[in-house]
Amino acid sequence: MTIKTLAAAVALTLAPALAFAAGCNYGKEEITMSCAAGTVYDTDSKSCVATTT
Fold first, then answer.
1. What one-character DSSP code corresponds to residue 6?
2. Beta carbons of 15 and 3 less than 8 angstroms apart
3. Which of 50, 23, 45, 21 shows the shortest CA–CA distance to 35?
4. Of the four, 5, 15, 40, 47, which is 20 to 30 A from 21 by CA?
5. CB-CB contact of 49 with 40 (8 Å)
6. pTM of the model
7. What is the DSSP string of 4-53?
8. Is there a contact between 39 and 48 (Cβ–Cβ < 8 Å)?
9. Is the distance from CB of 48 to CB of 36 less than 8 angstroms?
């Protein structure tokens, strides 16, 4: 086996593991909601509502 063939075999063997490791947090990101001034985010209605102060 030549060095190039061995390097290619190692790269192709490790590629799926590296691809899985890069995407293991898919869907676990936190999304923050920003509302206009004078409103707050209401989790029940899932929208911005005016503050009553």
1. H
2. no
3. 50
4. 5
5. yes
6. 0.37
7. HHHHHHHHHHHHHHHHHHHTTTTT---------TTEEEETTTTEEEE---
8. yes
9. yes
Contact in structure between 35 and 41 (CB atoms under 8 Å): yes
Q: Contact 41/33 with Cβ under 8 angstroms?
A: yes
How far is Cα 17 from Cα 13, in angstroms, rounded to an integer?
Answer: 8
What is the identity of the amino acid at 20?
F
Residue 32 amino acid letter: T
- b/e map 30-46, b = 16+ CB within 10 Å: eeeeeeeeeeeeeeeee
Where are the chain's structural domains? Answer: 3-50
pLDDT tens, position by position, for the chain (53 residues)? 699 999 999 888 888 877 776 565 656 666 676 888 888 888 888 889 988 76
For residue 5, which amino acid is it?
T
